[in-house]
Design goal:
The complex is a heterodimer of chains A (about 300) and B (about 725). With about 300 residues, chain A is an alpha/beta fold. Helices cover about 35% and strands about 30% of the residues of chain A. Chain A contains twelve helices and 14 strands. Chain A is elongated and about 70 Å long. In chain B, the strands form three sheets. A five-stranded antiparallel sheet of chain B has the order 9-8-11-12-10. In chain B, strands 5-4-6-7 form a four-stranded antiparallel sheet. In chain B, helix 11 packs antiparallel against helix 12. The chains are: A alpha/beta (about 300), B alpha+beta (about 725).
Chain lengths: ~300, ~725
Amino acid sequence: MIEIHNLTKHFEKIKAVDEVSVEIREKTVFGLIGTNGAGKSTVLRMIAGVIKPDEGTVAVDNMPVYDNVEAKKKLFFIADEPYFFANSNARTMERYYSGIYEAFDREEFYQYLEKFNLDKTRKIGTFSKGMKKQLALLLGICAHTKYILCDETFDGLDPVMRQGIKSIFAKEMEERGLTPVIASHNLRELEDICDHVGLLHKGGVLLSKDLEDMKCNIQKVQCVFCAVEDELKALNGLEVLKKEQRGSLSTITVRSTREEVEARFATVDTIFYEVLPLSLEEIFISETEVVGYDIKKLILG
Amino acid sequence: MTSKNSFLASCRENHKRRIWVWIVAVLSQLLLYGGMMMIYLSRIRGYQANGDYRDPAGFQEAMCRAARDALAFSDNLYGTVFILAAIIGMQGFSYLYDRRKVDMYHSVPVSKDKRFAVVYLNGIFIYLAANLSGMILGTLIAVSQRAVNADVLANAGLAFVWNLFLFLAVYHMMILAVMLTGNRFVTVCVFLAFVFYELCLSSQIGSLKRIFFKTYSEYYISTEPKLSVVYDCTLNIWNIKNASDAADAAAIAMPIVAKWILIAAAFLALAYLAYKKRPSEAAGRAMAYPFMEPVFKVAVAVPVALLAGGLVYDTSYQNEMLQMAGMLAGGLIFCAASEVLFDFDIRSVFKHLPSSGIALVGILAIFSVFKWDVFGYDSYVPAQNKVESIAISADGYYDSYWDENRPYFEKSQFEKENMFLTDTEPVLALAKAAEGADPETMGDGRYVQILYRLKSGRQVARAIATDYDDPGTEELLNRIFRTDAFKKGVFQGITDETSYAALEGIIYTNGPARAVIPVEEAGRLREAWIKDMEQFDFTLVRHNRPCGILYFNYKNYNQRQWYVYDSFENTVSALKELKAYYPMELDAADVESVTVTCYHNELTQDPEARFRGDPGYELYRDAVAAETYAEYADDTDYTVTETFYDEEQIAQILPHIYCTWGIDAPWGRYKDLDENYSVQVVFKRDTAYPYQRDSYYFEYSFYAGQAPDFVVEATAYTGESE
């Protein structure tokens, strides 16, 4: 587990990360979401042991990570702009990383290169941005570290490649308990991949929750009540996060389980009601609006 | 089995990232050593073709000398080592400038210590491999040309050590510069500051002292950089190159190398500390540590401002106020440029004004300290109870010094090592009397150099102006000159421990006569001379001119000279017994002719003088002045020469002349001899007087005011140029 406690980092007078505390559990895909400048990269670089926090601690499997080789052996960090040696090719990079990461699987690496159609002898400098990110991801996966930290790595990947990487992640998680930590400014990029999401804003954590928990605990109900009393009776005792009315059709977002909502609505007279699945975006809108933020301005643009 | 992550594997991997540095280093060394060797040897072969070498041994020696120059110490080599050290140092750690590289290197499981060690040691390995490759190539070429002997190899080995530690010192400076900065340009600036800071500062401080302090002297202690590697190289490379053999070269080189080891160690320690503390986010910033920005700005602004002020002072015909303005302008411009450099933004020109203000105040304070002598530099005279001993050098006596270990060294060095005046009171009294003195207003103003050795261990040097014509000064100098400590600190002949085995000959001369004395008489003469030196004091040398000089000639063209005065009864008596004494006054019977030239300085120094008695001079003074100055500008020759052959006239002249050919008078009065006349004495060919036959005539001067009337009359200026 990666434990981040009260992490704070200043860059000169700018507070880039402000008392961030998050726990990243093993075998989950952790999404770190936030706008540009929210502090995602800084948090990831501190987790990777690249930069030293001003305050707070980062522990990887109970080991401090900064300048700690043993902790770093468990991590592979893919920066937003991964660096490859000048005039190098995939083979050169493999040789470098296989010299550093003891568990690096060279055979697997070359198999993945073929699958992803990346030429091992072609100079990386001639690769597209997306190809470079694929290569960085493959190097990271094949390093066989317990954690892989991806900073904006999925941005720019085409859907097919994203799917390919996702399936590799799934396989690696299944087989050896890989824990990917993925930072992105785009919520939609993470929706179909993350188990747990942390939302960063202005250096602090707005929320950090399991996606399943969020999905299970927030329900959107579309219904047409027979009478106002029915509506009052149905919503009584429920935490209503949002309510929209178009004619007689009400769209209500409430914090509760699906079963409880269905049980409530079954006891009142309705002309029509349906409990609908929420997108991650809708969940975030609801969650952040509760605490006074307009998520659309933060990450949806 | 070597683990995947072993140190050697890391070194190998690191070398792959440094291919271009390898190429530059190896090529430069191969071309330099190989090229220089071929050029140098070819040059000698060219000389041989021209017939410059008479025998094969001479040619062989020249070939070995050329091979030594190519393999060992040369400006080209140390310049290349310097540049290579800078390139290797910067390239090795340049990943710290790039955030992408830092993200990769600092996230992988390699400890910071290990990465530093790998990059650092690989840099040294690159240099060593390149340097040795070059040396081996040069040696092979020299061997193929039969231009190698043991001295060549020994010198090459010594140069290898010299260059290695020069490399390390510069390499470590560059590494520290990289650690303190975040991009290449600023690194180069900081590196240049490390390399040239002390050199620039000390030269500028020295300039300020020369400009503003009347008592400043570099005779005993010079304001020179102590830690500057560049200064060490430029100052010593010539001496080392010209040392007689490798052992002599080592004697000069090794103390410097020892100093470089300390410098290199200090810079390495600082570089490592800066590396350990360096934040990764410093990549791309001007300075890795923000607190270093004002430190760098203020620290470098000072020598830059002093340099600017010095330039303005020199180009403005020594205008001190313009110098101050130049210093302030230089400091201000540097501060502004630093801020632009730190931010890479021209709009930052007026940023951080407080630190710029501190720099300017500091610059102004430095100028004030010198201009107004705030700390009383010129009035410094230590309290007597704080002085351990003193060495002084009173203007008026010069000699060359040597010993068995040193072919030549300065008089100041000999005095520092041998003169320990413990009766300090007369020196301190001289110094106190000299406060505010101006030698221009004195009868015979001379500088006396003083080295105060304080009980605290500190040494202070000053130059004071004294009037040799002043009786009070004469008395104080007498007290100093009479001491054994003074004599031992000036005359190497008194304390000479040199074996007489090295003595090749003894000569006594009064100018024209030259008597050869057997070397076996050296001890006797020395004993007599030392006994006579008991009467030595300032009055003796001030008011008496030597009647001759004893030269002791040693092997390797080394020589000691002992002045003999008429009052040196023991020496004169010994010389007489050895039939080697010839008085200064010549016998007219030996002299063929005396030619007297009168320069009529009174006319050239005061061109109007000859018209002053003319009627109407006052009336037409301006016209006269114009005419005389026009005449003066035409280089009118006022000299009048007359040769006297008459023995009677010659006999009247000889008691009044003193030989100036090969004889000087230490601490003598300039005014003792008449500068208006020169006298040439020609001996008769058939005389038995042992004058030196290879000279046709001998130069003499009249004692001041002693030219006989008939000579004055015969050489009077009549208006007709000769």
